[in-house]
Amino acid sequence: MMRPLPRATVRAGFFLQYMFRLRLYLLMRMNFKEAAMAVCAFAVRATITPEREEAFNRWYHEEHIPQVLRYNGAISARRYKVILGDDKYQYMAFYEFASEEVFEAFQASDHFRELIAEYDEHFGETSERTRSAYVQVWPPV
User: Fold this and answer.
1) Which of 90, 104, 107, 120 could be cross-linked to 124 through a Cys-Cys bond (beta carbons 3.0 to 4.6 Å apart)?
2) DSSP H or E run through 75
3) Residue 99 and residue 41: Cα distance in Å, rounded?
4) How far is CA 12 from CA 20, 22, 25, 127, 136, in A?
């Protein structure tokens, strides 16, 4: 005889189903071509002093990344911490945009200027950063 699933497992199943439906809804709101493939990548590498690192990570995850993703055509965001190499930058935020044109519009937007100003206000004295952008060359778009 099979036992009923624990409540936590059932709740987790409902949560995953909800998250799947939410993602599908968000993809449907944007152009399907944009939703299917991001072709422009934007990397921001940063240093942070040890005494500000916890606040930096919390702010990045709870405030900054959600603000970036509000921009129409910003597809995804991830953050990484360096584990290999001589690079002085400890962290990298990696964003994907629907197209090179969308990314260029983002770079020229008030939204982007506000994000930079907020970063500088919170961590300008204790952080260095550099930005790079890439357009997809393979597989062909």
Assistant:
1) 120
2) strand 74-81
3) 9
4) 12, 15, 20, 38, 36
Whether residue 6 has pLDDT greater than 60: no
Residue 57 belongs to what H/E stretch?
Answer: helix 53-59
Task: Provide the token pair at 60.
Answer: 């990045």
Residues in the chain: 141
Q: What is the pTM of this model?
A: 0.74
DSSP class of residue 39 equals -
Q: Is 38 helix (H, G, I), strand (E, B) or coil?
A: coil
Q: Which of 71, 44, 42 is nearest to 56 (CA)?
A: 44
| Residue pair 92/78 in contact by the 8 Å Cβ criterion | no
Question: Residue written as tokens 């991001």?
Answer: 38
| Inter-residue contact 112 to 20 (CB < 8 Å) | no
Tokens read off for 2: 């099979």
**Torsion (CA) 26, 133, 104, 126 in degrees, nearest 10:** 90
Here the tokens at position 118 are: 């907020």
